[in-house]
Design brief:
- This protein is of the alpha+beta class and 161 residues long.
- The chain has one domain: Gcn5-related N-acetyltransferase (GNAT) (Aminopeptidase).
- 27% of the residues lie in helices and 34% in strands.
- It has 4 helices and 7 strands, in the order βααβββαβαββ.
- It has a 7-stranded mixed sheet, sandwiched between helices.
- β6 and β7 form a beta hairpin.
- The chain starts with 16 loop residues before the first strand and ends with a strand.
């Protein structure tokens, strides 16, 4: 585990660490996932990703889980599948911290690019990704579930490492 640097002003209220996501953490992961999204991943999505060997990382304090990500390594790229910060902790720099952790891990794996999809309606996440060096490169029509109406488009973004 590596500690989150104390020098990061947005993180000054936390003494947090990164840890691998394990099946034992899925209750806490699911509590955040269900609170954060209208269409959350299922426990099975996380369990399958862990069994497949995908990189799951937690950001936590000794008292609670603050956020997490799940990513899949490719030949020279990493695809971010899920990144979530607990709703009551959003807007405090934790998403950027998670993305930087992902970038560092990706570089260590020999990746040259990070890729992700984000809901077209999720402007806050798009701004975060842009601040972290991601650029819009495409659109996936009807990618996300969106209730009884038509499915929502996903914006495809990438970042060179």
């Amino acid at each position: 585990m590596s500690a989150v640097p104390d020098a990061d002003a947005p993180l000054q209220n936390y003494r947090a660490e990164f840890a691998p996501m394990t099946a034992n953490a899925l209750d806490a992961v699911m509590a955040i996932e269900q609170a954060a999204y209208a269409y959350p991943w299922t426990r099975g999505n996380f369990a399958d990703s862990l069994r497949a060997g995908y990189e799951g990382r937690l950001l936590r304090t000794s008292e609670r889980l603050l956020g997490y990500y799940m990513a899949m390594k490719g030949v020279d790229e990493v695809h971010l599948l899920n990144i979530t910060v607990a709703p009551d902790c959003q807007g405090q720099g934790l998403g950027a911290c998670l993305l930087e952790s992902l970038a560092a891990w990706s570089l260590a794996q020999g990746a040259q690019w990070l890729w992700l999809e984000v809901r077209a309606s999720n402007e806050g996440a798009q701004r975060l990704y842009q601040r972290q060096g991601f650029r819009r490169v495409g659109l996936r029509k009807g990618y996300y579930p969106a209730g009884p109406g038509p499915r929502e488009d996903a914006i495809v973004m990438s970042r060179p490492l």
